[in-house]
Amino acid sequence: MRKFLLALAATAAFAGPALAEPVRISVGSFNLNNLPFPVAVGLGLYEQEGLDVTVENFASGGSKTLQALVAGSTDIAVGFYDHTIQMQAQNKNVVAFVQLARNSGLVLAGGRSSTFDPDKPETIKGAKIGITAPGSSSDFFVRYYLQRHGLAADDVSLIGVGSGSAAVAALEQGKVDLLVNYDPAATFIEAKGVGTILIDGRSDDGAREIYGGIYPTSVLYATQSYIDAHPQTIQKVTNATVKALAWIKAHSAEEIVDKLPQQFISGDRDTYVKAVEKAKAIFSADGLFDAKDVETPLTVLRTFNEKVAAAKIDLSKTYTNKFVLDAPRAVAN
């Protein structure tokens, strides 16, 4: 993966124009919720906008990316929308400006020896549950599930296992009893016979069952101060990303995978193509935020996050549609 990131950075630096504008973009993981970002990189769309993108991957989860953004060590983050709400509760202005995934895509999978039965929520007690990282949306998923069913956070053990093949390995090796993760991990689990999907949030119906509504996840976000200081940079990043979203919608899973560097493809290619096909439904078609949908993460966070519950949250300040509305609508070939 490190070689892949170096290759991405080198490609951006080599292919970009002499006066390309540098921008640092960090990504929490290369799960499929974030797929529009590497697709935009693979299609050369950021370079076409005159950007020299340096990519950093925090494979342990989105919370590390958020920390980097707030600390100023990255300019833009590919992370989850609910982090913007958390930051507002801490009086930090982090704003999402492109929606990549309009739905969670999370699944809860049980290993071969798991005794958890979703029809009997109390059977989750004592389970070791793998999540991408503490403070991540997979963490929120578990906590909200426990809260909804009258269970306490200490009824289970939460263990950070990352995403992708590392997460699948943790379930396969019995390091965790249950795993909350995204595609491609979800598809790999079924394809390898490692476990069974017990709760599936990849569809709109699944999201409504879990959260009570559509739960927007992967977005591009930045601090308000960076957006104010670099509006043209944000617009260029938005232009490229919106083109990537349109391109994904218009192309097959096979064609999408063809545009990705080989190092990005986890496991065998055929299974990865199947994972992309299953994940396509979660991607935004246009990058715009829906005022009703963003209420769902706030409802979830308020159930167990004391700072969010105590704060007066203004959701209109956690996202903006301005840059997407100003982006050209041409589809990349």
TrEMBL record:
<feature type="signal peptide">
    <location>
        <begin position="1"/>
        <end position="20"/>
    </location>
</feature>
<dbReference type="Pfam" id="PF13379">
    <property type="entry name" value="NMT1_2"/>
</dbReference>
<dbReference type="GO" id="GO:0042918">
    <property type="term" value="P:alkanesulfonate transmembrane transport"/>
</dbReference>
<keyword id="KW-0732">Signal</keyword>
<protein>
    <submittedName>
        <fullName>NitT/TauT family transport system substrate-binding protein</fullName>
    </submittedName>
</protein>
<comment type="similarity">
    <text>Belongs to the bacterial solute-binding protein SsuA/TauA family.</text>
</comment>
<dbReference type="GO" id="GO:0042597">
    <property type="term" value="C:periplasmic space"/>
</dbReference>
